[in-house]
C-alpha cells in the first residue's frame, strides 16, 4: 500500500515537471513579448519533422546533421528534427516577418533554426494572432528551402507540426499596501 502511494506521488511530480516544461506558445504570451525577448525563448516542434532530398551521383550530403539513406534504390539525405514528448531538438528564433494576404487577414512568420547556421531554418506561420504557429513550406508544399537546397517535408501523424516554446514569463505587479493599525474599544 505504501509503495502505491509513493508511486502515485512520483507520478504526480513527474507529470507536473513535464507539463511545466511543455508550455504551448500561446497568442496571449506572444503578445506580451518583444522581438528581443522572443529570441531568448527556446523553441521545439510538436512532432518529428523529416526533411528529405535525393542526392545526385557523387554528391555528398550538405548538412552535417543529415543522414544518408537509400530509399527505393536512390541515395537520399534526411534531416530529422525530433519533437513531441520531452521536446527533443531545441531551436532558436532567427527571424520574424509579418504580412497580409488579401481576404485572409494578417500573418506572422517565425523562422526557427535547429542548427548552428542561421540560413538553415524552418518557417512557422500564425494567422491573426489566433492558434498555433504551424509549419509552412518555403516553396510549394511539401517542398521547402532549407539553406540553399530544396527538401521534401514529411512528419508523423495527420496534424501539421506546430511550434512549442519554453517560456518563463515573470509578471511584475505593483501593489500599494496600506497597513491599518486596528481600532480598539474606548
Shape: elongated
Assembly type of the shown chains?
A: single chain
Task: Indicate the mean pLDDT.
Answer: 76
Radius of gyration from the CA trace?
Answer: 23 Å
The H-and-E topology, N to C, reads as HHHEEEEEEEEEEE
What is the count of β-strands? 11
How many domains make up the coordinates? 1
Strand line-up across the major sheet: 3-4-2-10-9
The N- and C-terminal alpha carbons lie at a distance of: 60 Å
Number of helices: 3
What composes the largest sheet?
Answer: 5 strands, antiparallel
Q: Unreliable stretches, pLDDT < 50, 5 or more residues?
A: 3-24
- Strand percentage, roughly? 35-45%
Helix share bin: 10-25%
Counting helices, strands and paired strands, the structural category is alpha+beta
Descriptive account of the structure:
By secondary structure, the protein is an alpha+beta fold. The protein has one domain. It has 3 helices and 11 strands. The protein has a 5-stranded antiparallel sheet, with no helix packed on it. The longest helix has 20 residues, at 2-21.
Keywords:
single chain, 186 residues, four-stranded antiparallel sheet, 3 helices, 11 strands, elongated, disordered N terminus
